[in-house]
Design a protein that fits this description.
The chain is mainly alpha-helical and about 180 residues long. The chain has seven helices and two strands; from the N terminus they run ββααααααα. The protein has helices spanning about 20-40, 45-60, 70-110, 110-130, 135-145, 150-155, 160-185; strands at about 5, 10. The longest helix is centred in the middle third of the chain and has 39 residues, at about 70-110.
Length: about 180
């Protein structure tokens, strides 16, 4: 059983961390860690969540936890790491939101491009419908269903080379016609 020595403030690893020792750690450090964390994140709820995560992690790992350094150092170091993780995730979220809002603004400003894209998609759809039956099947399974050449060959009972040939023919036809369509506009 692990014991917490109040004089040295360290965890003596001699087994698993029992509930009493954990309660002592919690009582000694909870408020200090929350205050430290709140000073850095400037949000009381976030600070409490971070410190709670740390203590939950310690409790979950109580049977294999081995702390070779001063417990105070260990807990404050863990808190600093969690604060860094918090800011890293917050930065990612803000970047994603900024990117989404930027994309949204671009989308709103690009109505003409959207109309052109819709016309082009409709044109490609018409071209696909005009392909020979097997070419159309292979193209649709490849591009719309996301199947690999091997999966298409198995599903249609064709050789992989035949599937490749049909896909190549379909793509060549579409490319030629789309290029022609774009040069006309």
């Amino acid at each position: 059983m692990a014991r917490f020595n109040d004089n040295t403030k360290s965890l003596n690893a001699g087994g698993s961390l029992d509930e009493g020792t954990f309660r002592t750690l919690f009582d000694l450090y909870w408020k200090r860690l929350v205050a430290f964390c709140q000073h850095h994140v400037r949000d009381h709820e976030v600070a409490m969540d971070i410190v709670q995560e740390i203590f939950c992690s310690i409790w979950k790992r109580r049977h294999q936890l081995q702390v070779e350094v001063d417990m105070e150092y260990y807990l404050f170091r863990a808190t600093r790491i969690k604060i860094t993780d918090y800011y890293r995730e917050r930065f990612k979220r803000e970047e994603q939101q900024l990117c989404l809002s930027h994309s949204f603004c671009e989308a709103v400003n690009n109505t003409e491009e959207t109309v052109v894209l819709d016309d082009l998609e409709h044109f490609v759809e018409q071209l696909v419908n005009r392909l020979p039956c097997r070419c159309r099947q292979v193209y649709t399974l490849s591009r719309n269903s996301g199947l690999t050449i091997g999966e298409i060959a198995e599903q249609l009972s064709l050789s992989e080379k035949t599937v490749e040939a049909h896909l190549t023919k379909a793509l060549r036809t579409l490319k030629k016609n789309v290029r022609h369509q774009l040069t006309e506009k």
